[in-house]
Amino acid sequence: MAVMGFGPDGWGALMLIAALMSVAVAASGFFIGMVFGSIVCWARLSKSSLARLLADGYATVLRGVPDLLVIYLLYFGGSSLLSYIGAMFGAQGFVSTPAFATGALAIGVVSGAYQSEVLRGAFLAIHTGQLEAGRAYGMSTPLLLRRIIVPQLMRFAIPGMENVWQLVLKESALISVIGLVELMRQSAIGSGSTHQPFYFYATATLLYLAVSSMTGWGFRRVEARAFRGVRKA
């Protein structure tokens, strides 16, 4: 399989770079989603009916709309806005949004809806007696968050977050439609140039599985460490 070699005629180095790009856009989107998810989780647990309504609407829409549609809306909507602003300053033609930033934001907006559910479930898993005990000891809300809520919230959220990460990693393949040269885009370019699609898509499969396996192992290690010393039922 010389086509996947690392020599002057091989595509191995380009495929590895593309795999790193996939990981980078997926990781960026995952952490952006964590910010969105935390805010939406807070809103869904708040006493404000308006905040709950807005958070429920966000989660419902983003989980019900295809991810590819969200990518297109952000890309073409953002590009139209940039083109309009450019025209105000005398620029001509279509101004596109950066593919990486658009892809990371799209993944983040979508994954935030799922992460909010994971975080909400993790919060509800915390025994209310611990919160009442903390308040009885005179803990302020920031101290209660730092000492009791956040440590246990993250502990209970890790398994669900791993599932969201695996979904995000697969969603990164959709960013190829707006021109980002990640693993799927590079596979399409290579297969079109060499007319050997099987080698490229088989290599892409192995690279995705390698990244998925390594990050899954990392999540399991973090989970084991988080539950160290905790007696399981």
Indicate the topology.
Blueprint: H1 12-45, H2 49-64, H3 67-88, H4 99-125, H5 128-136, H6 141-171, H7 183-194, H8 197-226
Architecture, CATH level 2?
Orthogonal Bundle
What characteristic shape results from the CA principal axes? Answer: flat
CATH superfamily: MetI-like
Query: Low-confidence spans: pLDDT under 50, at least 5 residues?
Result: none
Describe what is shown at a glance.
The protein is mainly α and 233 residues long. The chain has helices spanning 12-45, 49-64, 67-88, 99-125, 128-136, 141-171, 183-194, 197-226. The protein contains 8 helices and no strands.
Can you walk me through this structure?
- By secondary structure, the chain is mainly alpha-helical.
- It has one domain (12-128, 159-226): MetI-like fold (Orthogonal Bundle).
- Helix content is 78%, strand content 0%.
- It is built from 8 helices and no strands.
- Helix 1 packs antiparallel against helix 7 (183-194).
- The longest helix is centred in the first third of the chain and has 34 residues, at 12-45.
- The radius of gyration is 22 Å and the shape is flat.
- The termini are far apart.
- The model has no long low-confidence stretch (mean pLDDT 89).
Primary descriptors:
single chain; 233 residues; mainly alpha; MetI-like fold; 8 helices
